Amino acid sequence: MPEKKDINKVVLAYSGGLDTSVILKWLQVEYDCEVVTFTADLGQGEELEPARRKAERAGIKEIYIEDLREEFVRDFVFPMFRANAVYEGLYLLGTSIARPLIAKRLVEIAAETGADAISHGATGKGNDQVRFELNAYALNPDIHVIAPWREWDLNSREKLIDWAEKNQIEIPKDKRGEAPFSVDANLLHTSSEGKVLEDPAQMAPDYVYQRTVDPEMAPDEAEIVEIGFERGDAVSINGEKLSPAELLTGLNELGGKHGIGRLDLVENRFVGMKSRGVYETPGGAILLAAHRGIEQITLDRGAAHLKDELMPRYAELIYNGFWYAPEREMLQAAIDKSQEHVAGLVKVKLYKGSVNIVGRSSPNTIYSEAHVTFEEDAVYDQKDAEGFIRLNALRLKLLARRNKMIG
User: 142: Cβ–Cβ under 8 A, 6 or more apart, which residues?
Assistant: First the structure.
């Protein structure tokens, strides 16, 4: 933790909500420093101008509000989806993948404004504090990080609100009582945790879901969607070329309408505890299925199986905050190499919470109908399989004879 006297200016990741509004004032009071606010539009679906106005009313002179949606999808989400990354078999890493971009801009703005430190609103119990700080240190080893939740004694919502009122801080009306749950959102997903969701035995209330309709209430007619790929990245929906952010936005709308991408998960946090989260990743769920669909006909078996072996490690690195670590970059290089010929069209069927591949085609296909046909062919001699089986069975037969001898 830096000495307070050494901190003259801090760049704060600022949303304008209760926590970061309190943090802004707390930094001014406790560190007697100038604060620069940074608010990122990652597609969370909220109007950001109120954050600017609140920062101005707090006396902030340098206010950064940036639309990072294209960079987020192009440089972070898409590379991750080339790997088919899923944490603990289910989670599509929607919160995790946003943190390295936010950390990157915090460090860059600190350099631009001559700030001594950066600050965030992540708690001392969660993963985000680790992600923000590991990624920041990887980009600037000398940056100071101020994490108020690890310093102050405002360890409850009631204390936070009391402190805010005593310091004339605007309190969002919905925060005057106990919040039912905490929400993080971006263009890839929504994440809901805490309060009404803390007991994993209890079903999540319907109002937790914000981006998807109840699958039971989704349209009774299925919808077929065609997604185009180039070098492992989705580039079009139903023949229309789209930018990365536009494409994910379009898939979110389709998936949300059909109730796709809901997940109720008890996961293992990096800090050691288990937590229950309810996630919605409608576009991501479609994208993952479609990407695997195009890989089925364009990736060699060896490359595909190696990717699947590497994927859990890659996903864990992102979850734990090691996006800028050399091992993640090494894995990314291997993954990107595998995607050179992953191009073509995939048809997916969307229906009441499910997404299924119903067709795939590619100019780079390895699939050979001539080889797999049940009809007569001139390219495959079925007698060759006998020697193949005999050689692969040799060690098994030797083991069986040995075991039979020793009883």
Answer: none
